[in-house]
Amino acid sequence: MSGHNHMKLSFASRSENEAFARIAVAAFVSQLDPTMEQLDEIKTVVSEAVTNAIIHGYNGSVEGIVTVEAEIDGDTVLISIGDQGKGIEDLELARQPLFTSRPELERSGMGFTIMENFMDEFDVVSSEKSGTSLRMKKRIESKKALFN
């Protein structure tokens, strides 16, 4: 499959919308015919990013907006997830495995590590009081290509 396609979602920073975002992106990416492992990795990454926006960006407030964009360019998917929340105070520290700013919520501190490992490219930009934006890229080698 070649070509270019894109989608954009914006929704309230409510935890119940995490599943909506995960399923919507998975359905969009499915047109590339990914393997189940690739699809599971993408769903996990979206889930982690949206959950981080809700819990950390907006401190669980339902007043915020989370934006999810996905773009297909040939065999590559680019996923951007952002919020306009409080931002990350120390981005370098936040990217360290096992670091969490919300230990009282029993968070594992592995979100960024998981996202980095499941995607081919991963970038995060954050400004205090302006929010956080994640950009991730993954090449999808379709199941059809594996059997030809």
Summary of the model, kept short:
The protein has five helices and five strands; from the N terminus they run βααββααββα. With 148 residues, the protein is of the alpha+beta class.
Overall description:
This protein is of the alpha+beta class and 148 residues long. The protein has a single domain, classed as Heat Shock Protein 90. It contains five helices and five strands; from the N terminus they run βααββααββα. A five-stranded antiparallel beta sheet has the order 1-2-3-5-4. A hairpin with a 2-residue loop joins strand 2 and strand 3. It is globular. It comes from Cohnella lupini.
Report the mean per-residue pLDDT as an integer. Answer: 87
- The CATH architecture can be given as 2-Layer Sandwich
| Integer-rounded radius of gyration | 15 Å
Q: Could you tell me the strand content as a percent range? A: 25-35%
What is the domain tally? 1
Query: What is the overall silhouette?
Result: globular
In CATH terms, what is the fold-level topology? Heat Shock Protein 90
- How many beta strands in the DSSP annotation? 5
Q: H/E order of the elements? A: EHHEEHHEEH
Class by alpha and beta content: alpha+beta
Enzyme class: transferase
Pfam families: HATPase_c_2
EC number: 2.7.11.1
GO molecular function: ATP binding; protein serine kinase activity; protein serine/threonine kinase activity; sigma factor antagonist activity
